[in-house]
Amino acid sequence: MRPLVQLLYPSLLALAAITASPMVLHAAQPAPNPQYAKNFSIQEYPTHKLLSISGLPSQSKQPWQFALVPKGHAVPEIPLGAKLIRTPVERVVVMETVYIGYLEAINQLPTIVGAGTVDFISNPEVRQRIRNNEIQSVQVGQELDIERLLLLQPDLILTSISGDPTFDIPAKILRSDLPVVLTAGYMEAHPLARAEWIKFIAAFFDADAEAHATFQTTANRYEALRQTAINRATRPTVFCGAPYSGAWYVPGGESYMAQAIKDAGGDYLWADHPQQGAIPLDTERVFFKAALADIWLDPSHYRSLDELFAADNRFRKFRAAQNGSVYNNTKQVGTKGGNAIWERGIVHPDKVLEDLIQIFHPASNSPQNFSFYEKLN
Fold first, then answer.
1. What is the largest CA-CA distance in the chain?
2. Of 113, 145, 323, 327, which shows the fewest CB atoms inside 10 Å?
């Protein structure tokens, strides 16, 4: 007997996305450019939307493109290599937890039928649906369960690509006719740019109005909070992270975290390092630069000073640790390690900024009321 996957694969592919032939496009309708995001664009045509992504690791010079065509409509001519997705999508597989925050914001959580890394999902509604077997895990460890993925018959598979084959969806699936859609929000250098990817996600659900309203409210509040912090007389010095697998990774000076620290009125010690990715250092080099820093943020998974000092007693020597000025974004970590900051916090960076402002510039007559952060005691 032929394996189930072999039997189902041709028919399932026929139901999924296809690749179309080259053509001369009709003129696109004007669409507002993203205000902050640099790695996606949306063009609106009378018959479809064309979404383009740039900035992905190891990608060719040509951007990834997705043609969104309403269900029941004739397939228009679309660019060579563009993947066709019928909209609105109704059965979605999310390979990373970040998409849950976007889908929650546009009221599309019920469309999720499969997920990767289910243990790291924090959203209560989604966790309950996993327990009810309404959402299936499509991963076993780091391996993709391709048979289960095919049986779910998704019309959208959301994932990202890091360039590391250990974590990325297999290339043969990525290049197949399955409706795999890549995103590059994590490559953005501004918190609001990452949040603005809600517009890209919403296009697959015909939820553009909800996405624009959510983002604009978030952006307006973020900018208003930033204005309260930029003219502070004092700017505390800040460093981040803790050692992991022998290296201490600090955010680059052009990362979204460096931008958030700046916008909250902090002086990030590695702000002058012009890179987006993390910078691997040893503990001695970090101590040399950050020994007298005022604030220590995001020390790995540690939630108390005792845990932190037990990992390395030298951490006691940082002035921030001696002064009790160590804060981690672990307030909403679940029992299995899921953290709401990587779901809701990505979509609502204004709440993260509000936490950071309270940390850097605490009000003397008001208790701190954090959304995602907590002070290590």
1. 75
2. 323
Show the domain range for 276.
232-375
Spatial distance between the Cα atoms of 278 and 244, rounded to a whole number of angstroms: 12
Q: What is the CA radius of gyration of the chain?
A: 22
H helices of the chain, in order, are 4-15, 98-105, 124-131, 146-151, 171-174, 191-195, 197-203, 208-230, 256-263, 283-290, 305-311, 319-322, 344-347, 349-360
3-state SS track over 87-133: ECCCCEEECCCHHHHHHHHCCCHHHEEEECCHHHCCCHHHHHHHHCC
Residues 172, 308 within the same domain: no
Which residue(s) pair with 182 in the sheet?
A: 159
What CATH number does the domain containing 330 carry?
Answer: 3.40.50.1980
- Report how far residue 160's alpha carbon sits from residue 363's, in angstroms, rounded to the nearest whole number: 40
* Residue 157 backbone dihedrals phi, psi, to 5 degrees: -120, 110
Local mean pLDDT, 10-residue blocks, the chain (377 residues): 42 42 46 87 96 75 84 94 95 96 98 94 96 92 84 94 64 74 92 98 97 98 96 94 94 97 98 93 96 98 96 96 98 92 98 97 83 97
